[in-house]
Every structure is written in structure tokens, then in C-alpha cells.
Amino acid sequence: MQADEIRFLFEYHFYANRLIWEECILKLDAEAFTRPLDYSVGSIRNQCVHMMSVDERWISGMMGKPVPDFLKPEDFPTHDSVRARWDEVEGLIREYLNTLTDEEVNRGIQMQTREGSRPGRTWQVLLHVINHGTDHRAQMLAMLFSLGAPTLPQDLISYIWTQEA
């Protein structure tokens, strides 16, 4: 795996997050945005907070920074408060990606889990972060549909086609 391939996949991750944010989530009023739903981690707001929290925790650890506590959804009551923090997290990830080398991508690491330490490679953690986002975006799209909000595809190929245009 190469650093440029990881950067490309993160550009897709950022693109898909923003696409769903702008075209779907921003169509929700404040009540629908925070409405408790009996799926995954709860409301659309909670999904967004969970996604940015997990991204921040993994990337902070990869950067050798202290891993922050999980973010609390109640600390982000509005669309604007979520977006502001999500932009900060994206900035942190971009900072990390800008320093990433092919050697670092393929470096062996020890991943800390609830069960203890497990061996892996940097690229595996980074692909996990992207895959985690895809999983939660898919959950969000189902939730958005149930709220009557518009939905759309988030496929990687859709992003690739936007890059070719």
C-alpha cells in the first residue's frame, strides 16, 4: 500500500461525509437532527459525533498524540457546532496525511484494543477508519430515509467518477 493511495481514499471519506452532510443532513430541522432513533448510536447528530470522535481517536493515536476521550453528543446541540468540530477533525487527519510516507503506511505497529495489544500495519488502521465511516454513513442514510430526508449514493465509484469529470 502507498501513502498516495491512502490519501486518495481519505479524500473519498471526506467527500462522502460532506456530500451527505450538505445534501441530506442539512435538510433536517433541529428537532429531526437530534431526534432519538432506535438504531445504531441514536440520532443523526449522534452518528455524526460518533464518526468524528472515532476518526479523531484513531488518528491522534497514529500521530503519537494522547487519545482523546469519546466526544459527547450533548456537547454538540446544533448543526453548526457539529460541523465546526468535524472540520477540526478533518484538519487533524489532513495534517497527519500530509506527513505520511510509503514506509510509514507499511510499518508494523501495535494496536491497542479493549482486549489488549494486537499487531498490525498502519495501512490497516487507516483503512479501518475509512471503512468505519462507510458503515456509519450507510446507517445514517437509512435513518435519514426514515426521517423523510433525501438520500443518495455514497459509493467509492461515485467519487472516482467525480474526479474524472
What fraction of residues sit in β-strands?
5-15%
SSE run: HHHHHEEHH
- Point out poorly predicted stretches: none
Assign an overall shape. Answer: globular
Structural class: mainly alpha
Would you count the extended β strands for me?
2
**Rg result:** 16 Å
Mean pLDDT: 94
Q: Termini distance?
A: 26 Å
Question: Helical percent range?
Answer: 55-70%
The major sheet is characterized as:
2 strands, antiparallel
Q: Provide a count of the helices.
A: 7
Structure report:
63% of the residues lie in helices and 7% in strands. It has helices spanning 3-23, 30-34, 44-62, 79-99, 102-105, 122-146, 156-164; strands at 108-113, 116-121. A two-stranded antiparallel ribbon has the order 1-2. A hairpin with a 2-residue loop joins β1 (108-113) and β2 (116-121). With 165 residues, the chain is mostly helical.
Q: Quick gist of this model?
A:
With 165 residues, the protein is mainly α. The protein is built from seven helices and two strands.
Features:
165 residues; mainly alpha; two-stranded antiparallel ribbon
Helix and strand arrangement:
Elements: H1 3-23, H2 30-34, H3 44-62, H4 79-99, H5 102-105, E1 108-113, E2 116-121, H6 122-146, H7 156-164
Antiparallel strand pairs: 1-2
